[in-house]
């Protein structure tokens, strides 16, 4: 293999000669102009900048990266060393590919296998998966995988993202630096595997979920212009929760190395944007319906779209003979016994609210004894994906609650709660959907949850199932949903009965309402849901995300990119093609060659850091300016928005220093010269109108201040809450424009300020 080249492994696997001209060429760096532009990243192995002119037209290719490959693996036999691989039809990643269509785009997967592969078999397995499935497996040592997945992902990130703080060792895992290092190491291993197949100029990379949140940094560092999307399938917590994470900024900056970041709901996106504002000082804006964050010259787009289900796969399963047989069996078990089935399908974990649902069922039977002997709650409890003390506690509470309810309200031939805690085949679960009169999803926090979507499509059924159910095809279908307010699919299901799962009485009332609701109302709600779910499937979601990713990356070739920063602080600075960065050598050379020099120095943010509490110049800055002023060939000028009195006091030791105060309204070429005004001195009677308005907003906005200059008034909210300050600034801007409409002044907003000054 050629050093530092990324050959198309698919071609190698198929025995074809690698097309080094297209897939493995060395990516040229940005052209440098002697004495003007310097490359900030001198190590070519660390960061590569693409030459815009070298891109070639070819079929789009998408690299999907996730913790787990959509592959099932099993040994050929106990004594054999070979493996049998097949697609995991239930995997969202596979459904995503089917939704895009093979003709549209070529898809490659990068991820881990569920089964552990012995090191001596890994090369052979990689070859098979690459040739047969276009999958690139990532092999992790068992100890590293445990610390990464069961440690950092499941014990620290997952609970926190579901609003569970580690207030005690029993409530989620406390932050562990070694687990964090394992997480970073695994993300780096994933990046190395992607390097083996990526064509950075043309390929799109789509990373999925919280397991790989720092992966964008590793890819962006290697390829500055990589087309990179990230979708978070879990909730993103509010800033009050997220800011407790010790590595909060590292994760935010890593995500911002993506071009497009996707969330299921506006709430999740809003929380992420709030974290970026409060912790990184970044603001966002919406342009023509698209939300974007400006980050070092790059626009990071935000996508809000809930994932859908695979309609084709679900309709195929509904048509299976096994499904019809199972439906007939359930009808005999429940409907023929005059039982009404309520259904719950959840993982056995602390956030799915199984125990709350059972308590609501108990309350329903107490408050409405007429349902005793008639209503049955079938609770399908899938095995938990994590492990630990909390899972065992949930299991124990679930079993004891089911036992108590059945002992209290059960009778021969009737158990009000049927708990199924063994894995069901997909067609069996679908059969339960078909028969259930109402589906209950009472999770206390969940990223999306597609159970309601599957239930709606299953209740729509088909002609064969209608015959099994004894329904006429002409009769409109019906379904009822009781869903938690705290799950991602809730906003898109406007016909569902939404509940607070913590309010047991309200959930019980919702269950009773679902049972008592008139048939036409159930039919109308079902029709509304079916129309939405059937048109917003997984293919629609995937195509929409990729379209936005392509739109966001469209201007990559028109930007000059430099990578700066070390480790997880790495980011790319994107600049206009005409930008020229002055090198130190060029400045020194030009300074020595010339005999007359004009040196203009900005103050805030240049001579003095923007975030500095003491706004005055340091002794070192004063000494530096005095040194420049001693040279008779230099004319040194400080340009600032500050008042002339403030600047005069600060720079009084610098006798030959020129000062331009209040954005140049006042000018003094040297210390011993009188101040001049560039325009006639304006009438400032308008301050009597503006100042009371600003004082009103200062009193109601903690951390805001007013600066009264000679020619301007400035309201600053630099130390206020960023969200509230920004909101107040917009109100103040409108208020001032209204009351000063007939005055010769300009009202404008800037970075954390609103300023009123005379018209020029």
UniProtKB/TrEMBL annotation:
Its EC number is 2.4.1.15. The keyword Transferase applies. GO terms for biological process: trehalose biosynthetic process. InterPro entries: Glyco_trans_20, HAD-like_sf, HAD_sf, Trehalose_PPase. It catalyses: D-glucose 6-phosphate + UDP-alpha-D-glucose = alpha,alpha-trehalose 6-phosphate + UDP + H(+). GO terms for molecular function: alpha,alpha-trehalose-phosphate synthase (UDP-forming) activity; trehalose-phosphatase activity. One of its GO terms (cellular component) is cytosol. Keywords: Glycosyltransferase, Phosphoprotein, Transferase. It is an enzyme of class 2 (transferase). In the N-terminal section; belongs to the glycosyltransferase 20 family. In the C-terminal section; belongs to the trehalose phosphatase family. PANTHER family: ALPHA,ALPHA-TREHALOSE-PHOSPHATE SYNTHASE [UDP-FORMING] 6, TREHALOSE-6-PHOSPHATE SYNTHASE. This is alpha,alpha-trehalose-phosphate synthase (UDP-forming).
């Amino acid at each position: 293999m050629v050093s530092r080249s990324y050959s198309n492994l698919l071609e190698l696997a198929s025995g074809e000669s690698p097309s080094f001209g297209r897939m493995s060429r060395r990516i040229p760096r940005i052209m440098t102009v002697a004495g003007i532009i310097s490359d900030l990243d001198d190590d070519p192995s660390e960061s590569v900048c693409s030459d815009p002119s070298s891109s070639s037209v070819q079929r789009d290719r998408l690299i999907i990266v996730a913790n787990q490959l959509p592959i099932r693996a099993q040994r050929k036999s106990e004594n054999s060393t070979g493996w049998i691989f097949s697609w995991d039809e239930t995997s969202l990643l596979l459904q995503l590919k089917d939704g895009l269509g093979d003709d549209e785009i070529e898809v490659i997967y990068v991820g881990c296998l569920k089964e552990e592969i012995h090191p001596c078999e890994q090369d052979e397995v990689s070859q098979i998966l690459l040739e047969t499935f276009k999958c690139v497996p990532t092999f992790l040592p068992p100890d590293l995988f445990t610390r990464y997945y069961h440690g950092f992902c499941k014990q620290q990130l997952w609970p926190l993202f579901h609003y569970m703080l580690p207030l005690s060792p029993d409530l989620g895992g406390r932050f562990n630096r070694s687990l964090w290092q394992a997480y970073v190491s695994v993300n780096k291993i994933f990046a190395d595997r992607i390097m083996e197949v990526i064509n950075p100029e043309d390929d799109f990379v789509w990373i999925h979920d919280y397991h790989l949140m720092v992966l964008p940094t590793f890819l962006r560092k290697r390829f500055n212009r990589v087309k990179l999307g990230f979708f978070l399938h879990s909730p993103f917590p509010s800033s009050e929760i997220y800011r407790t994470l010790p590595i909060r900024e590292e994760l935010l900056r890593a995500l911002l190395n993506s071009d497009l970041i996707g969330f299921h709901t506006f709430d999740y996106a809003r929380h992420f944007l709030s974290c970026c504002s409060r912790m990184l000082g970044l603001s966002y804006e919406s342009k023509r319906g698209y939300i974007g964050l400006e980050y070092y010259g790059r626009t990071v787009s935000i996508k809000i779209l809930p994932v859908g289900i695979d309609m084709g796969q679900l309709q195929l399963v509904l048509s299976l003979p096994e499904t019809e047989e199972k439906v007939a069996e359930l009808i005999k078990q429940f409907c023929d016994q005059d039982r009404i089935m309520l259904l719950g399908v959840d993982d056995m974990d602390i956030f799915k609210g199984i125990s709350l649902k059972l308590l609501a069922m108990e309350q329903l039977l107490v408050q409405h004894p007429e349902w005793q002997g008639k209503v049955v709650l079938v609770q399908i409890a899938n095995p938990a994906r994590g492990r630990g003390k909390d899972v065992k506690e949930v299991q124990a509470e679930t079993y004891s609650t089911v036992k108590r309810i059945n002992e209290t309200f059960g009778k021969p031939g009737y158990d009000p709660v049927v708990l199924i805690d063994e894995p069901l085949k997909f067609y069996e679960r679908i059969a339960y959907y078909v028969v259930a009169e109402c589906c209950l999803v009472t999770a206390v926090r969940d990223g999306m949850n597609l159970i309601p979507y599957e239930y709606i499509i299953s209740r729509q059924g088909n002609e064969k199932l209608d015959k099994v159910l004894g329904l006429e095809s002409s009769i409109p279908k019906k379904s009822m949903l009781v869903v938690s307010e705290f799950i991602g699919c809730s906003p898109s299901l406007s016909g569902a009965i939404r509940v607070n799962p913590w309010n047991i009485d309200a959930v019980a009332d919702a269950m009773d309402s679902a049972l008592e609701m008139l048939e036409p109302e159930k039919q109308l709600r079902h029709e509304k849901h079916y129309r939405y779910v059937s048109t917003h499937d997984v293919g629609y979601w995937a195509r929409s995300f990729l379209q936005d990713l392509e739109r966001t990356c469209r201007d990559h070739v028109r930007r000059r990119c430099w990578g700066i920063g070390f480790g997880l602080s790495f980011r790319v600075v994107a600049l206009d093609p005409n930008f020229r960065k002055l090198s130190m050598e060029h400045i020194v050379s030009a300074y020595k060659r010339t005999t007359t020099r004009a040196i203009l120095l900005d103050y805030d943010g240049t001579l003095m850091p923007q975030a500095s509490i003491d706004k005055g110049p340091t002794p070192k800055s004063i000494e530096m300016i005095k040194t420049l002023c001693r040279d008779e060939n230099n004319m040194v000028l400080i340009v600032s928005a500050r008042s002339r009195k403030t600047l005069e006091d600060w720079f009084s030791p610098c006798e030959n220093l020129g000062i331009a105060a209040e954005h140049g309204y006042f000018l003094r070429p040297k210390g011993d010269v009188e101040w001049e005004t560039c325009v006639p001195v304006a009438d400032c009677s308008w301050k009597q109108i503006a100042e009371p308005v600003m004082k009103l907003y200062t009193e109601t906005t903690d951390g805001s201040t007013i600066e009264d200059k000679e020619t301007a008034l400035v309201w600053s909210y630099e130390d206020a809450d960023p969200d509230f300050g920004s909101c107040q600034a917009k109100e103040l801007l409108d208020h001032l424009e209204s009351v000063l409409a007939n005055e010769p002044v300009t009202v404008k907003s800037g970075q954390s300020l609103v300023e009123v000054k005379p018209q020029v």
